[in-house]
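Lecture 7 notes: from sequence to structure.
We start with the chain below.
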Amino acid sequence: RSLWHRPPSRHPNRGCAAMPSPMEEKMKAMLALNARGGKEEKAVKESALVLSEGNPQAGTRGPEASWDMVGQTEMVPQGRRSRNAGMHTMEIYFPQFYFTQVDMEEFDAKPDRYGPTVIGKYTKGIGQVEARFPSDDEDPISFAMTVVHRLLERMEAKGINETGNYMPNGQPLSVWNAIGRIDIGTESIQDRSKSMKSYIMDIFERYANESNIEGVDQYNACYG
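Predicted structure tokens for the same chain:
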């Protein structure tokens, strides 16, 4: 049953509303915090801090942890301020072999194929100059593993790693341990019983014994 659909109250008095669930209380608290732009009022923050200090489940999260009144703590890094969200770096891999789209149009324009109607379809129509294809020892999985490996190496070399801003000791994590989510976009999934992301995880397990990374495969035309 969905958390967003609660059964009606069985109280004998029809005018009485059902008691809110702990999940609803938590969502209300989160929405109220977001409405304030992540800035808690002084009294609420002091109360949350006292409860957090007296709660055994709170651990040693420090003053940035808030007690949500339903038995769990919520980490609010730096008051929910922006964490330099955006595109930091990019890696692109192209296979070695290719054919020009002009040659492809000339080939497909032959009478025994599609005829002259394809002239301009591949070049002007879809805006391509070349079409590249893998060799016999490459596939979309090897493409993804190559770009992820090169991307992480560039991040390490150029110091593109801000995890130290959110660590208690100020020391950044290794780049191989600093990734929290990986999304794979592709038109050419290789195995419908195994995600491409699971192959990418082999790199992280090999270099840093890292296996706790979220992610999914996005299997759509014109997405990867």
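Points to note: Strands lie at 65-67, 73-75, 97-100, 130-133, 181-186, 214-219. Confidence is low (pLDDT under 50) at residues 1-17, 47-71.
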